[in-house]
Structure formats: C-alpha cells, structure tokens
Amino acid sequence: MSRLGAVLRLELVLQRRYRFLHAAVLSGALWLALLLPMPPDLRSAAEPYVIIGDLTIVGFFFVAGAVFFEKDERTLDAVVASPARFGEYLAAKVLVLTTVSVVIAVFVATATHGVGYHVPSLLAGAALGTVLMLLLGFVSALPFTSVSDWFMPAVLPIAVFNLPILAYAGVWETPLLYAVPTYGPLLFLGAAFDQVTLVPWQVGYGLAYPVLWAASLWWLARRWFDRFLIAKTGDA
C-alpha cells in the first residue's frame, strides 16, 4: 500500500473515531428537514445558502476539530515522526472531507429537486468551496492549543470568507467581494439551481481564483505546520 493510501485509511479511522462522519450525516438530515417543507421556488432560492452552510461546517469546523483532537491525542506527533509527508497527511484530510461534503450536497439537492439541477455547477461549487474552507480551517487551528483559544479568533476568517453571501443576497453589491475566493463557488451553486446565469469570464474566475487561493493556503499550511508543530516537537 502506498503512503498516501495508508494515510487515507488512517484518516477514515480517525473520522469515524471522532464521529465527524456521523455528524455529517446528521447535518444533511437537518438540512433536508429545513428544505423539504418549503415551496419549490423558495427551496431553490434557499439551496445555495444551505450548501454553503453545510460545506462551512464540514470544511472549516470539522477539520479544525480534527486538528485539536489529534493534538490532544498526540496523533500529530506520530505523524511528524512517521515516514508520511505533510502533503500526504493534508491531502488525506482534503480528499475525505471534500468527498463527504460533495456527497451531502448531491444527496440534499437530489432529495429536494430530483434531477432538476445542474450537476457540474453543483459539483464545482461544493468541491471548490469545501477545499477553501478546509484549508482555511486547518491553517486557523495550527497556532492554537485548544478549541477555546481558537474559537473567537476563528470568527474573523470565516466571516470574511462568507462575505459573498451579502452580494449574492443583494444586500451589499460591490465588485470588491470578487476578491473573496468563496464568491466563485457560491456563483456556481446559484447557477446549479438557476438562480444565477454565469457569463464565460465568471466561469473562468470561479474555477481559477479559488484554485489559486487553495494553493496559497496549502503553502501557508505547510509553513505553519513546520512552525507550530514540527518545531515544537523538536524542542520537546
């Protein structure tokens, strides 16, 4: 088995141990309970907000929670000492949790709309949005030793990354919000339910800009992992 395969297997075991997979299923059920009683038109309008909310939970909060559990159980110390590379460790988290998030998005959309939505737009929006939230959550958790220390400072980055909701809802329409990388995924989610008609430049922006941000967050995650975990492990 390759190192990545072994790390993926470990990640699945950890996710089950921490009950995050159970929480993800419960989250999907709760979103269905919210959406199904709505009239079809209102349901379509609410769907992008629901999926953004869910990928924020699965992406940002689940990965941060996993980091703190692993710190408490000294799993991260074992990762540092193992042959596994940082890229394989983080890739396993991104692959597992992004898959969970996308499956929930497809399940909720299909349960509420049948096949009456644009699948490629939904997949693009859910996958890109989850990856961004995952990397943001991972980076935000690294400098802190406990959830209580992390929670209040984490409000700022998650608030910034959710600012495009204001533009999408028509509350604050400004081109400045295109600087926030989650705007592209949100536009794709709107297009999936015929709430937004994307022009070609928006499609290119929605695909390329989040990927650029994800690469930057990955680089920052590598630097901060070295600074806040590997360096401290070496000093211990």
UniProtKB/TrEMBL annotation:
UniProt KW keywords: Membrane, Transmembrane, Transmembrane helix
Source species, domain of life: Bacteria
Transmembrane regions: 20-37, 49-69, 89-110, 122-144, 150-169, 199-220
Protein name: Fluoroquinolone transporter permease
Organism, scientific name: Saccharomonospora piscinae
